[in-house]
């Protein structure tokens, strides 16, 4: 199969590209390298530097492509609070641009990666796809808006669409931003350097951590599964882990002498997040294979930053 991955130089995009190439697919990639790194892109990817608003480039790349994996996005929640216009331009405008180019060229399917963040704070757990979203950041709003555009445009123009709401993905190579880095690589980095693990708020807030390989498997399944057109599907582990528990696991794994401290005034985000993955199981044959313990161990062993 000939595929295009937008955001191919990012954490998820590069891992997806590697797996597709190993499976014998022809992979084209588009990335503006604003967040991803060119050295992340696996050998064998036909890479083009550019952004999603470059329509001529999209038309050229999409020739004979059977499926688009649309991963390119700005993803930092705190940054989105400062720059909502930019998030709207990239995450919504860029998505519409990709969909229009697919229509023009005749590409038949898109796998769109959304986020569990669209649910916001919910009393009902686990979170199922029929719950009314309650986004609480411009980032989450932009992903939800893009979901509606993808589904609506797909229905109007005859493009098969599959939307995957990815929960807290982690694994080797995840980007460590200076401000508000993802919690797992941040804790691992602090622990291996005998640093302090800072827990925001009470630490009782939970997240559904899902290993990189499981997310990639779900995306590939979504590209060929039948009877998934127009569906929105959660991709997580189906389990919830508190931030306090995560810190303890990381310290045990690394054998670090690190201490944990609490920042009670920090925003810890929503109190609970756990994905209901029953739809993913029934429609994609999805079954997460990597436990959190194993995933943390793999991340430490395979990521040179955590040696």
Description:
Helix content is 39%, strand content 18%. The protein has ten helices and 13 strands. It has helices at residues 11-22, 55-61, 77-82, 84-105, 138-157, 183-192, 212-224, 243-254, 278-284, 292-302; strands spanning 2-6, 26-31, 46-49, 67-70, 109-115, 160-166, 168-170, 197-200, 206-207, 209-211, 231-235, 241-242, 260-263. The strands form four sheets. The chain has a seven-stranded parallel beta sheet, sandwiched between helices. A two-stranded parallel sheet has the order 7-10. It has a two-stranded parallel ribbon with strand order 8-13. Helix 4 packs parallel to helix 5. It is globular and about 55 Å long.
Short description:
By secondary structure, the chain is of the alpha/beta class. It is built from ten helices and 13 strands. β1, α1 (11-22) and β2 form a beta-alpha-beta unit.
